[in-house]
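Appendix B: a complete holo record

For completeness, this appendix reproduces one full record from the ligand-bound portion of the collection. The bound molecule is adenosine-5'-triphosphate. The inputs are the chain sequence and the ligand SMILES; the output is the full three-dimensional arrangement of the complex, encoded as structure tokens. No fields have been trimmed.
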Amino acid sequence: MKKRAIKVENLVKNFGKNESLVEVINGASFEVNKGELVALVAPSGAGKTTLLMMIGCVEEPTSGTIYLGDEKVYEDKWLTKETRKIRREKLGFIFQAHYLIPFLNIIENVTLVPQANGVSTKESEKIAMELLEYFDIQDKVHAMPSSLSGGQNQRVAIARALANKPEIILADEPTAALDIKRSVDVVKMLKKIAIDQDVAVIMVTHDEAMLPLCDRILKIEDKKVISTVLKENEEII
Ligand SMILES: Nc1ncnc2c1ncn2[C@@H]1O[C@H](COP(=O)(O)OP(=O)(O)OP(=O)(O)O)[C@@H](O)[C@H]1O
Ligand SMILES: [Mg+2]
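The structure of the chain with adenosine-5'-triphosphate bound, as generated:
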């Protein structure tokens, strides 16, 4: 049976007030299941990052409801004071730039979040090594991010996003800085992770070539979210 990872109901997000009011999302409702890799597409400025950041408990919605797993985290207000704890425990973030910490080596970057969550040094290093092996960068564990290629750093960033065993991965244009081959590798990796670790992955992308690798496509249209499955030869973006 499919397990729900995200459920959003009637989500609304406005920025500003009165004359400067900007309505970005107005009544979005959708679900994402564990094991699914979902692409989020829309033109620039349509609210993709804003939507990810609301699901990620970073940006406060104006109104609506958000469930992460079985937990209702937002209903017209955050239902916990500890949104940071939810982020640390349930969510993994991957961004366009990898944002590895430049003065920490690879394994230190990956162990940072589990250690912040109270996992012992030994255990977090074991988890990190497993992930870095999975991503085939085990020989770089003591290297600094500046000595790795863009694709290698992005794989480390994905390993880091997985290190706290999240239920949900939110990826904002994770392949934007990569060439087509590396992009396909990263997206296939995200799909494998979704299945192997039963994680829900939402990936913002402007790259049409990535869409056939995803299970489903969420589009922001008229400030709402619609779910589609890519049909052959269909152009979405
Ligand atoms: N903090 C903010 N204050 C005011 N307006 C904002 C803020 N953040 C985003 N916006 C506005 O909300 C809209 C959606 O922005 P968002 O960054 O979510 O778009 P996007 O779909 O991610 O675009 P892109 O593809 O360029 O990354 C834009 O009109 C933007 O100007
Ligand atoms: Mg964006």
